[in-house]
Structure prediction request, 309 residues.
Amino acid sequence: MDPATVDFLRRTRTRGRQPLSGLSVEQARRFPSWFELLFGPAPKLATLRDVRIPVPDGTTLRARLYADDPAPDVLVVYFHGGGWVLGSVAAFEPYTALLAQRTGTAVLSVDYRLAPEHPFPTPVDDAEAALRFGAEQGQRLLGRPLRRLVVMGDSAGATLATVAARRLAATPDRRGADLQVLVYPVTDAGFDTPSYRDYAEGYLLTADDMRWFWNHYCADHALRLDPDVSPLRADDLGVLPPTLLFSAELDPLRDEGERYAERLRAAGVDCEMLRCPGVLHSFLAMANTLPAAREAFDRICRGMRERLA
Prediction:
């Protein structure tokens, strides 16, 4: 770790952080997210517009469209992290707005429904509906033909992104995503990797935090074997689009994300995987605070621009 990251962890420990396992969902949601605490204000963009997304059960999801380019032809459908329990479009807005500005794309950030009020499969169903909406309505949203459709997420949002992409790709006569971008994704519920052992405590996200999230999202342990819950267990990964996958070195989720990249490659998917050195889970929230996190965010933006050129 670089000195700034070491100091950040020291200050975090000194201030005391109550484990999620000791909190109710209501209590956990009262605390500001790392994005709200660390990222800073959102940049001013040419376009910031609220969007409503219909889903098959009659619900309407809220979403927000960000763009700085006056005529973007790439739409990124984005799913925020938060363990399927926490997070919102509003909390992630400074980051998603900057992502749109830095990549020259339009970013549609989606408020999918959260557990435990809406456990699996509702968040996955919402993600599929939102990605399908982006595919079908992208031209209307952008005001010009949609050249590329990207599905993207971080942490639990990356899980939703890749499952939605696989579902949509398996649907006949439907446009699917042209690229998926997965940042420190959750891909399995095994808790048995070396990174879970090495970074179980003391590196911001803990193994007990992840058990808390999983117990709210999918309490049935047998159901966690479903590939729509744990995408590492899917046997039809070859339908997925080209992929950029970014893991965080100091993250209990690191190994399962990297194993997912290996599975994608074995299935014939063009998958570029980068382990971002010296960074923690949720490093996107620290992009304006820690040098290593800033470099990791820069690499994500560069990778997206190169793939979308």
In short: Residues 254 and 306 are 24 Å apart (CA to CA). Strands lie at 47-54, 60-67, 74-79, 106-111, 148-154, 179-183, 243-250, 271-280. The mean pLDDT is 95. The two ends are 33 Å apart (CA to CA).
